[in-house]
Inverse folding.
C-alpha cells in the first residue's frame, strides 16, 4: 500500500536552539536523536556534543500538520496558468477533469513532485491523496503518485486512496480495478463518491466498497457532496455498515456538509452515530459550501480533520498546498477569534487528520517523532492569522525546508 515512510536511523543528532513551545514558558532547546525528540530542556542546558546546531531564533515550534484530503494527481501546480472552464455542477467538473487529463498530460510527475514539495515546505508532514481510478486511466495514476511519494519519502508521508471519481457502478470495470489496487498493495484505502446523487444506488455502492474493505482489511474515505436529507440518509447508511462490518475508526466521510443542513433531532442522531462508529469527518472548507462547526462536533466526540482538496487544478484555480492557510479558512468561517479557539482549529489540522488516517498525532514532546516546524509568531493564533513562511521544517528529525523552500537532498 502507498504509505511511504523512512526511519531516522544513522542520522547525526541535531540541537535546535532557542525555540518557544505553544504553551507559555521560557525558550527551550530541542535535541533530536534518531529522528525523534530526545530532550526538551531550558535553553543552554543540553550538552549536545557534536550535534548539528540550528538556531531557532526564538521562533515558535509547532507539530507537523496533516493534509487529510487532497488530490495531487489532478494538480496543475508548477506550470503555466490554465483558466477554469468547467460548468457549475459536480458532473461538469468530473467531465472537465477527464477531458483535460489527456490534453494536459495529467497526472504529471513534475506537478505531483512540485506540489508535494510545496506541502512539505509549509509544514505538512503527512498527506492523504485521492487518486483517480477508472477504466480509462486504470492504475497509472496510483503508480505515478506512488513513485513520486517514494522519491520524497524523507520529506512527507503520503497515503493514497483509490478513488472512483467518475463513479463506481456507472463505470463498468472500475470495481475490478479497485480490487486489483488492493491485491497489488498499491493502496490500503478505498474511496467512494455520492452513492445516491451520482450513483443512484446507495445500497449497491456502499455494499460493494464495504465488502472490499472487509475482505482486504482496507480503510474507506467516502466523498459525500450530497446535501440535506439525502446526504443525511447516506450518512446513516454508512454508520450502520461501519458497525455491522466492524470497521470502527477506519472510515472517513469527506465534505459531509449535510450534517449542518438537517433538523436538530436528525443531526444529533447522526453525530451520536459518528462518535460510536468513530467515523471521522474531513473538511476542506471550500468555496461557498457550509462550514462544519468545529467546536460543536468535537464537543460531541466527533473527530474532524482538514485538507486542501484540489490545489490549482481543473476543478478550481485556487489553492497553495499550505495547511496553515486552510486552517485560517476553517477558523475564520467558524467565527473563531480567541487564541484558544484558533488553536482548536489548528489541532484539527494536526491531531484530527492523523486520527482519521489511523496515525499518532504529531507532538512536541520527548520520544515523539521529530515532525515539526518553526514559525516566527508569538502564538498559534498569530501563526494562523499571519501565516509567515516556515523558518524550518523537520520530518523525522531531518531538515526538509528552510524559509519556505524545500530541501530535496536525500
Amino acid at each position: 500500500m502507498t504509505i511511504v515512510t523512512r526511519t531516522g536511523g544513522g542520522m547525526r543528532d541535531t540541537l535546535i536552539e532557542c525555540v518557544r513551545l505553544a504553551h507559555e514558558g521560557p525558550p527551550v532547546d530541542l535535541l533530536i536523536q534518531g529522528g525523534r525528540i530526545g530532550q526538551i530542556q531550558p535553553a543552554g542546558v543540553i550538552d549536545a556534543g557534536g550535534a548539528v546546531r540550528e538556531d531557532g531564533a526564538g521562533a515558535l515550534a509547532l507539530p507537523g500538520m496533516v493534509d487529510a484530503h487532497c488530490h495531487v494527481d489532478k494538480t496543475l501546480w508548477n506550470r503555466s496558468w490554465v483558466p477554469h472552464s468547467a460548468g457549475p455542477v459536480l458532473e461538469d467538473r468530473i467531465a472537465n477533469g477527464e477531458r483535460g487529463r489527456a490534453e494536459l498530460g495529467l497526472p504529471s510527475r513534475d506537478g505531483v513532485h512540485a506540489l508535494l514539495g510545496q506541502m512539505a515546505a509549509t509544514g505538512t508532514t503527512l498527506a492523504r491523496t485521492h487518486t483517480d481510478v477508472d477504466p480509462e486511466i486504470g492504475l497509472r495514476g496510483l503508480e505515478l503518485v506512488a513513485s513520486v511519494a517514494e522519491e520524497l519519502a524523507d520529506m512527507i508521508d503520503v497515503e493514497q486512496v483509490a478513488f472512483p471519481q467518475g463513479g463506481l457502478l456507472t463505470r463498468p470495470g472500475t470495481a475490478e480495478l479497485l480490487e486489483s489496487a488492493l491485491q497489488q498493495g498499491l493502496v490500503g484505502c478505498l474511496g467512494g463518491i455520492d452513492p445516491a446523487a451520482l450513483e443512484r444506488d446507495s445500497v449497491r455502492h456502499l455494499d460493494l466498497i464495504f465488502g472490499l474493505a472487509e475482505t482486504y482489511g482496507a480503510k474507506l474515505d467516502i466523498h459525500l457532496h450530497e446535501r440535506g436529507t439525502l446526504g443525511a440518509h447516506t450518512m446513516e447508511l454508512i454508520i450502520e455498515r461501519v458497525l455491522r462490518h466492524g470497521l470502527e475508526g477506519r472510515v472517513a466521510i469527506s465534505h459531509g456538509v449535510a450534517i449542518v443542513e438537517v433538523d436538530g433531532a436528525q443531526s444529533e442522531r447522526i453525530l451520536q452515530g459518528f462518535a460510536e462508529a468513530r467515523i471521522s469527518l474531513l473538511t476542506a472548507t471550500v468555496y461557498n459550501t457550509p462550514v462544519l462547526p468545529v467546536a460543536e462536533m468535537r464537543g460531541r466526540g466527533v473527530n474532524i480533520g482538514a485538507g486542501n482538496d484540489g490545489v490549482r487544478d481543473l476543478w478550481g484555480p485556487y489553492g497553495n498546498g499550505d495547511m496553515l492557510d486552510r486552517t485560517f479558512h476553517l477558523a475564520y468561517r467558524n467565527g473563531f477569534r480567541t487564541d484558544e479557539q484558533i488553536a482548536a482549529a489548528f489541532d484539527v489540522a494536526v491531531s484530527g487528520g492523523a486520527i482519521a488516517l489511523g496515525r499518532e498525532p504529531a507532538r512536541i514532546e520527548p520520544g515523539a517523532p521529530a515532525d515539526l516546524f518553526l514559525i516566527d509568531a508569538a502564538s498559534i493564533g498569530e501563526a494562523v492569522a499571519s501565516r509567515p513562511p516556515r523558518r524550518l521544517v523537520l520530518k523525522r528529525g531531518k531538515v526538509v525546508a528552510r524559509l519556505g523552500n524545500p530541501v530535496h537532498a536525500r
Summary: The chain is about 35% helix and 20% strand.
